[in-house]
Specification:
Elements lengths: L4 H11 L15 H18 L7 E7 L1 E2 L10 E4 L4 E8 L10 E4 L2 E4 L3 E8 L8 H19 L3 H25 L2 E4 L2 E7 L7
Antiparallel strand pairs: 1-7, 2-3, 3-6, 4-7, 5-6, 8-9
Helix pairs in contact: 1-3, 2-3, 3-4
Length: about 200
C-alpha cells in the first residue's frame, strides 16, 4: 500500500485520539502548522535512524577543482545529491574501494580523488515507505505531537513504551527483506547488502 504524508499525519493523530484532518489547507485550523512542522522535522530523523534498505542510494559524484580558500589540502570538491540525508560510505571507484581521506562540510565533500562514489541515505517519498515503517513512524510522530496538541502524560507514557517495539519490528522485517551476503573467505562474517559489483 502506498502512503501519503496526509495519511501518515492522520494515523499519528489517531494514536493521540485526536480528530483527523481532511483539509490540510484550512487556515483556520491552528493545529495544521504545528503538525506540518513536526512532520517535516520527524521524517528525516526517522529515515536516518536506521539503515533502511529502501532508503539506500548510490551516486557517482563528479568533482570540480577546489579553488577556494577552504581546505586547500584537497584538490577536488564534490556536491552532495539534493536528496541526501546521511552518509553510509565514500568510495574512490566502482569496486567500492573505501576513501579514507576526505572532509565533509555542509553539502560539499573535499577530497583528492578525481571521482567519488557514495552510498547514502536518501530522503524518499512516502509512497516508498513500507507498512511496517509507517506502523512505527506514526507512533514516533505522535510522540512529538502529543505535547503540542493535548499534553496527555499517560498517553505519552504509552507511546514511549510502544515505540521501541514497533521500531524493532520494522528493523527486523527490513533486515529479512535485505538478505545478507558473506564476505569472501570467511563464512562467519556477514554484512548487510551487496559487496562489490557496479554502483
Amino acid at each position: 500500500m502506498a502512503f501519503t504524508a496526509a495519511e501518515i499525519k492522520n494515523l499519528a493523530l489517531m494514536e493521540l485520539n485526536h480528530e483527523t484532518i481532511t483539509d490540510w489547507t484550512d487556515s483556520s485550523n491552528t493545529d495544521i502548522p504545528i503538525i506540518n512542522t513536526q512532520y517535516a522535522l520527524a521524517k528525516p530523523i526517522a529515515i536516518s535512524m536506521y539503515q533502511w534498505s529502501w532508503a539506500f542510494k548510490y551516486a557517482e559524484l563528479t568533482g570540480s577543482d577546489n579553488t577556494g580558500t577552504q581546505l586547500t589540502k584537497y584538490k577536488k570538491k564534490f556536491t552532495l545529491p539534493t536528496d541526501f540525508i546521511g552518509y553510509l560510505s565514500c568510495y574512490t571507484n566502482e569496486q567500492l574501494s573505501i576513501l579514507a581521506d576526505y572532509v565533509s562540510v555542509g553539502d560539499t565533500i573535499y577530497s583528492n580523488s578525481d571521482k567519488l562514489y557514495i552510498k547514502y541515505i536518501a530522503s524518499v517519498e512516502e509512497s516508498a515507505f513500507p507498512a511496517e515503517f509507517v506502523d512505527w513512524f506514526k507512533i514516533f510522530l505522535a510522540q512529538r505531537l502529543n505535547g503540542y496538541l493535548n499534553g496527555d502524560m499517560q498517553r505519552q507514557q504509552l507511546l514511549n513504551s510502544e515505540e521501541p517495539f514497533f521500531f524493532r519490528k520494522a528493523k527486523n522485517i527490513d533486515s529479512k527483506r535485505n538478505k545478507h551476503d558473506s564476505l569472501n573467505g570467511n563464512p562467519l562474517l556477514w554484512v548487510r547488502g551487496k559487496i562489490g559489483g557496479s554502483i
